[in-house]
């Protein structure tokens, strides 16, 4: 547990096992209602860099928020947390709801961000919604508390391959009602669309071709708005393609993060040295 500007947050920090070798830490924003254990498979497969994430208020092990919060406040809280962990600059990744949070953090704290990865996400209010049957299952609280329900409706809920679904079901924990509501409320009416043309960070947009919650067209919209962006489409990938296509995704993520910066002969690592 960490106290960040008076707010208690449950934080996970995986330290690089083999030395960071010039790699920046990776800050990870999770999906809505998702506790930090959900990010464990990704963190463990990136042993050459620090990896940091935290439970949003009322999610996982973080206490319920006393008052509602928004993206501006959580971006500020995140910046303070990074300062406490002596991380002046990071690469940033966000999935689904966390992808919106990652966009906002990159816009609000641009100087702290090197590269940005947006997975299965949208520019917020301006988006193409998913399939009605998937959204209905997403609103059902049984997906958190009933593993059998989650397993039965996994395909309808997330789309794409069901590979890795067993592990996901056992890692996820139900958020509190207050935590889930406030997390929804935090992005009510939010959109990054007017500001994304000014986002100059190298950005990788990862989308599942068969995502039932965030259709592929939303990734194309993001790519059209962010100048220095590229898109990777995971064929047969649903909303949880980071689990079902883990190795393919990791190869794409590593290649993007380790790529030399344009105009630098030795890339970021050489410059850091």
From TrEMBL:
Coiled coil: none annotated. It comes from Parasphingopyxis marina. Keywords: Hydrolase. Pfam families: Abhydrolase_1. InterPro entries: AB_hydrolase, AB_hydrolase_1, AB_hydrolase_fold. One of its GO terms (molecular function) is triacylglycerol lipase activity. The lineage of its organism: Bacteria, Pseudomonadati, Pseudomonadota, Alphaproteobacteria, Sphingomonadales. Residues 25-245 form the AB hydrolase-1 domain. This is Alpha/beta fold hydrolase. GO terms for biological process: glycerolipid catabolic process.
């Amino acid at each position: 547990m960490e106290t960040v500007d008076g707010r208690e947050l449950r934080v996970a920090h995986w330290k690089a096992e083999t030395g960071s070798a010039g790699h920046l830490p990776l800050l990870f924003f999770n999906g809505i209602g998702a506790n930090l254990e959900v990010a464990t498979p990704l963190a463990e497969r990136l042993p050459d860099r620090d990896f940091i994430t935290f439970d949003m208020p009322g999610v996982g092990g973080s206490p319920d928020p006393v008052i509602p919060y928004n993206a501006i406040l959580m971006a500020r809280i995140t910046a303070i947390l990074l300062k406490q962990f002596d991380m002046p600059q990071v690469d940033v990744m966000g999935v689904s709801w966390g992808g919106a949070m990652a966009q906002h953090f990159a816009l609000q704290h641009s100087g702290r961000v090197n590269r940005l990865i947006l997975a299965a996400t949208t520019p917020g209010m301006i988006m193409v919604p998913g399939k009605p049957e998937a959204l209905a299952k997403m609103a059902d609280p049984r997906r958190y508390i009933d593993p059998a329900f989650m397993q039965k409706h996994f395909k309808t809920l997330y789309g794409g391959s069901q590979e890795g679904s067993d592990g996901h079901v056992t890692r996820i924990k139900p958020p509190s009602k207050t935590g889930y509501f406030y997390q929804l409320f935090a992005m009510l009416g939010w959109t990054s669309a007017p500001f994304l043309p000014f986002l100059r960070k190298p950005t990788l947009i990862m989308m599942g071709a068969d995502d039932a919650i965030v259709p592929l067209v939303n990734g194309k919209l993001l790519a059209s708005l962010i100048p220095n962006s590229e898109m990777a489409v995971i064929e047969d990938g649903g909303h949880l393609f980071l689990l079902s296509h883990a190795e393919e995704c990791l190869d794409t993520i590593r290649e993007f993060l380790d790529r030399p910066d344009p105009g630098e002969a030795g890339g970021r690592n050489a410059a850091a040295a």
